[in-house]
Design a protein that fits this description.
Number of helices: 3
Radius of gyration: 23 Å
Helix content: 40-55%
Oligomer: single chain
Keywords: Membrane, Transmembrane, Transmembrane helix
Number of strands: 7
Structural class: alpha+beta
Strand content: 25-35%
Order of helices and strands: HHEEEEEEEH
Largest sheet: 4 strands, antiparallel
Length: 159
Amino acid sequence: MMAFYALVLIALVVLASFVRSLVIIFSQSTERAARVGRIAGLWVTRIASVAVLWIAVNYWIGADLRSKAHDCRKTPSDGGRYIAELCLLRWNPGNDSDYVGRVYDAKNSELLAERTFSTPVPELSWWKEDNVSFSRGGDDSSWVILPPSLYDRLLAKLP
């Protein structure tokens, strides 16, 4: 619900800023093109700032949630090269609960990949040596293909 109010507030600020920009542009008939250029530059800066802020807040909330993972269970792969861990993040009675799935290197316990997802049926399953699934049903966000991609390895380095 908090996210809804944040979106409404952002929409109101954007609308007020847009109306103010139009008033400034059309307030005088001279040098209108220069004012349009300045205001367009301001809009690009504002939109980029809001996007960066939105990404940072979402990442912070996600990192905080992932740090509170509990009820974890680990299972080694068939060949013993990887260890998969499935942890509960947030229990949602009657709905899909939130989980995090992690894949570690069995030799040095280095985190190789991490997935956050929602599912009604959490289930840690190895498919041969090259796939691990953290859910029965749901979307593909609970699958990790091994070895992890560069993107997965980089995301695993973030807190």
